[in-house]
Specification:
Elements (H helix, E strand, L loop, with lengths): L8 E2 L4 H11 L3 E4 L5 H7 L6 E4 L9 E4 L2 E5 L4 H6 L1 H6 L1 H8 L4 H6 L2 H7 L7 H6 L3 E5 L4 E5 H4 E3 L2 E2 L6 E8 L5 E8 L10 E9 L6 E9 L6 E2 L1 H7 L6 H10 L14 H24 L1
The structure holds flavin-adenine dinucleotide.
């Protein structure tokens, strides 16, 4: 592991200053937020000789707001704050659940949602929830701001639609409606502080009273180069009641959307099986809530 003691670290006091620094350095600089991913990566890297712009003290990027039915989260907000937020618990409870599962207490308090998104691990725990919420990312440079659906941000394994002079500044999404119910799942090799072997989120909209599924969103992580939506499984759910036959068919169908790999945490075959089982269990739990 390399020492980073001699890396130049620039510490802007405002967002505007940070954007100015990024603009001037034309890609020859890395953004440091909580550092829980980046510092490990840089210490292992033999090629990094650039500078860092440390945005961690930019409190203007730390907030959770409800504006009408739109929830807005500043990119530097840490996962402890997200898990404990009454706004997130009420308007996107499964995102609060996902946040709660991230790392240890130390990681929870340091790791930012923006870092989780830009680090682009397909196993990142906030991503499936943000995919089913169809979250929008706000990317800002010195000259402009643009908004992008989260699914369009990822172009392949760790390939992002993020320009060298841009920061991710905000994540926003519509709050969950009364007839929607969502859940997050995570399978790790141990109970706590574990990177996901598979994870996912399911968000169903049901017809009040009849419990027929009107709309379905299923997002799966750690089973493809990016998080994926299980489109065939979603289509199969629409217009159906959540009975055992449907749940079983849907969980088999998720494999058409995934392309898992073998790695230290599990084989491709194991991941596919876990994915099917967790989707089935999650639908079962949702059906139980609907029945109660
Ligand atoms: C022990 C341990 C356990 C962990 N457990 C989990 C886990 O259970 N689940 C999980 O999902 N993750 C886990 N992680 C990974 C990590 O904590 C998260 O991905 C975290 O959210 C990263 O946020 P950060 O603020 O630390 O980002 P950093 O490490 O500072 O940055 C990560 C990347 O994002 C870029 N970046 C950060 N913020 C911005 C921004 N606003 N705009 C543009 N680029 C930006 C950086 O340049 C870098 O490339 C774990 C890490 C450790 C060390």
């Amino acid at each position: 592991m390399r020492s980073l003691a001699y890396v130049d670290v620039l510490s802007p006091k405002t967002l505007e200053e940070a954007l100015e620094i990024l603009d001037e350095n034309k890609g020859d600089i890395r953004v440091l937020a909580g550092g829980t991913d980046l510092i490990l990566q840089l210490r292992k890297s033999t090629s990094f000789n650039g500078k860092l712009v440390n945005i961690f003290s930019l409190d203007q990027l730390r907030y959770i707001r409800l504006e009408g039915t739109n929830v807005k989260i500043g990119a530097l907000t840490d996962f402890h704050t997200i898990a404990e937020s009454p706004i997130i618990q009420k308007h996107a409870p499964f995102l609060a659940d996902a946040a709660r599962w991230i790392g240890s207490v130390q990681i929870l308090n340091k790791a930012s949602i923006g870092g989780n998104i830009v680090n682009a691990s397909p196993a990142a725990d906030s991503l499936p929830a943000l995919y089913v919420l169809e979250a929008t990312l706000t990317l800002q440079s010195k000259a402009a701001k643009r908004h992008l659906p989260i699914s369009e941000f990822y172009k392949g394994y760790k390939k992002l639609d993020l320009r060298p002079n841009e920061l991710l500044v905000e994540i926003s999404f519509n709050s969950v409606k009364e007839n929607q119910i969502g859940m997050f799942f995570k399978h790790g090799l141990r109970q706590g502080d574990a990177i996901s072997v598979v994870n996912g989120a399911v968000l169903l909209e049901v017809t009040p009273g009849s419990h027929v599924v009107r709309d379905a969103r299923i997002a799966l992580g750690a089973v493809a180069p990016t998080v994926v939506r299980a489109k065939e499984a979603e289509a199969h759910l629409k217009g159906k009641k959540l009975d055992e036959k449907t749940m079983s068919e849907v969980s088999e169908l998720v494999v058409t959307s995934i392309s898992p790999i073998d790695d230290v945490r599990g084989s491709a075959v194991y991941r596919a099986e876990m994915c099917k089982n967790y989707v089935y269990m999650t639908l079962w739990k949702i059906a139980e809530v609907l029945r109660s």
